[in-house]
Design brief:
Radius of gyration: 21 Å
Strand content: 25-35%
Low-confidence stretches: 5-10, 22-28, 30-38, 153-159
Structural class: alpha+beta
Number of helices: 9
Largest sheet: 5 strands, mixed, barrel
Length: about 290
């Protein structure tokens, strides 16, 4: 449940922490998620508070914002927990349409064989933040190999196995399997930093597909029917859930579940456009 506090001209929204349901060693790899986002009400010009009474007779304060929708979650994958060696890559694959898994067109100039090669699916796993696409592609292949059981490993291509060996991926064996978060430890430091980004982006997240076919990563509390929402004045989109009733003034009331990533949207929030079209900001309330 989100909590909203105000003081002077600044609003602080406290969000649920992404649950890390594993040991204390999580701090070795993953940064602690930020719990708050600050909004300067003097400069935003669109934020104000009002009191409301719920259908159960409870009284509270709600925050009015300008917000635009970025789709409704129609498919939702299992939770990724890298510290329990649980990266449901194959299950997430199954949620995708063929167009999500197709390789990119490549570099027309031919100067870089890896440029624009990664699929939409791979780019979402890294939240489009990896400068070298070959690193992202090979990292995802390594995770697939890690997830294979012994019988499936026998059927993996010699090319993939040789490439992983070249990368010195530490897959281990049945007797002493390497922890998922350690499989890139033997790679060069520059590669390790980039490959482990997939863990940072996906841990405690669930892959989703919107009703319009966009891929994204949602907080683990998300469920089918929740919506992606861009709040004017913030730098990232959110997953929100409609409350049981609209606001007293007929405005839609929502509850924040957490930040999210949605392809072709997250990097355009500040520009106010979604795929080149002006975003339809409307007044909504957060409770």
């Amino acid at each position: 449940m989100s909590r909203i506090y105000s003081g002077a001209s600044r609003v602080v929204i406290y969000l649920p922490r992404r649950t890390a349901r594993s040991g204390a060693e999580q701090n070795r790899l993953l940064p602690r998620p930020s719990l708050k986002s600050n909004i300067d009400t003097e400069t935003s010009g669109t934020w104000h508070f009002s009191d409301y009474t719920s259908s159960h007779g409870d009284h509270g304060t709600q925050l009015h914002v300008r917000a635009a929708l970025g789709g409704t979650i129609s498919k939702l994958g299992d939770i990724c927990d890298v510290y329990r060696d649980d990266f449901p890559l194959e299950q997430w694959d199954g949620l995708c349409d063929p167009v999500h898994l197709e390789d990119g067109p490549g570099d027309p100039s031919g100067s870089d064989p890896w440029r624009h090669r990664s699929s939409r699916f791979v780019r979402v796993l890294f939240q489009d933040r990896v400068p070298y696409e070959d690193v992202a592609i090979r990292a995802v292949e390594a995770i697939r190999e890690y997830n294979l059981d012994e019988s499936e490993s026998c059927r993996s291509s010699s090319e993939t196995t040789a490439e992983l060996r070249h990368w010195q991926i530490k897959l281990g064996d049945d007797a002493q399997k390497t922890a998922l978060v350690d499989i890139f430890q033997a790679t060069a430091h520059s590669y390790q930093r980039q490959t482990e980004l997939v863990f940072q982006c996906c841990h405690a997240r669930r892959l989703f597909v919107t009703d319009a076919g966009y891929l994204g990563l949602a907080p683990e509390t998300a469920r089918v029917g929740d919506r992606v929402m861009v709040i004017k004045g913030l730098e990232v989109p959110f997953v929100v859930r409609r409350t049981e009733a609209a606001g007293d003034d007929g405005l839609e009331a929502v509850r924040l579940l957490g930040t999210c990533y949605r392809e072709e949207l997250s990097d355009k929030v500040n520009g106010g456009e979604d795929l080149g079209h002006p975003m339809n900001y409307q007044e909504r309330v957060i409770r």
